[in-house]
């Protein structure tokens, strides 16, 4: 049960980490087809590792009953519940007038990349082409 709960924790964590602000399970998550395919594949492999006899020998697992699966899922979903409560409380106590423009999180991936570039290069546009950043495809250098 611990192995299955851990995997389900990671699936719930992947859902909770999709957006820094806003609802934990919002409409934006339905549009990420790749994420849903990956989550479904991980869940399917987990069920195979736990329920299929051949895989049980490889992973040294035993079959779980539906009640045990429900307990694992309920325990793992506490990540989503906790994150939802945390975000609701932050939204309740934060006031837009108190937040400076520079401290607001970037809303798009392009703006986040630009903010990272400015931070790494000290705001110097000439250094942007030499900045080595992990999010760039290829060998990590901007072209």
TrEMBL record:
Positions in coiled-coil regions: none
Q: Which domain of life is it from?
A: Bacteria
The record ties this protein, via InterPro entries, to:
ATPase_P-typ_cation-transptr_C, ATPase_P-typ_TM_dom_sf
In this protein, which residues make up the domain named Cation-transporting P-type ATPase C-terminal?
1-86
* UniProt cross-references to Pfam families, sorted A to Z: Cation_ATPase_C
Spell out the protein name for this chain: Cation-transporting P-type ATPase C-terminal domain-containing protein
